[in-house]
């Protein structure tokens, strides 16, 4: 089965499930959710950071675990009370590339918008110590993540672009992959996450048996962002490791406040969270996951527009009462590529001092 068909099938299955979800009973407070990732990943830590900051502004944002990027993208598109989700940029590009030829993917991306660009996610490959390069994965058993995850798509693309042919590609999650590697059932596994990520901080990973594989393939370096996992990011990793990376992006939906009460309240939820991120950005960088220090709010992925509800929350007149002072962040530069993105950039510069 081709990678395009795999992604298309995943999208169709997820859409069918999401279309079938019934709306929960009406609650006193309108439900607001952000889809993140697994319990040991960086997505969920970012989600918790945003949720904690939102709570200081009287906004309750539920942080929801998920399989990863593809589920998050489709969840934002069709799942009730799911206004936000974190997605890998290569998932965005892959979906947009195949939308012209696949109606199910075209429907999946309809109405999805950017909320904020986030950080670069490094492609981690934890392997046996005797495996020294990507090419050594030929003929080996390699875990590539579950099918609804960004890790699955990235790992599949990396292996195909580098022309690596493992003996077996196992579709299991990161926790099961780590257990299988340590038990000798597989030879390596992929995990795409912003370093440092919790799963690799286990003291049980023996540096005499395992290491992070460098990624130096010229084709991959041309397609992906350059990345480096700094020395000492994990207990077993004394030296820096050169890898490739993808951008993590916070996604939302283009809600129409005039359509119905659900759209109106969802748009307000997106505006509230956008206001929180923009006005509390320095505090997020100071107290949140270390990857917040690498977030450039002007680094918008090409070909995707910022949502109108996001821009509404960035207006100087937007009202939301929060605890403490509103901090400012260092200036960051960028160039607009649409009217919506231009408005976003002006508002971000006003909020964080470009």
Automatic annotation (TrEMBL):
Classification via InterPro entries: TRAP_TAXI
Keywords: Signal
Pfam annotation, one family: NMT1_3
PANTHER family with a match to the protein in the record: SLL1037 PROTEIN
Organism: Sedimentitalea xiamensis
Keyword Membrane: no
Residues in coiled coil: none
Protein's name according to its UniProt entry: TAXI family TRAP transporter solute-binding subunit
Residues of the signal peptide: 1-27
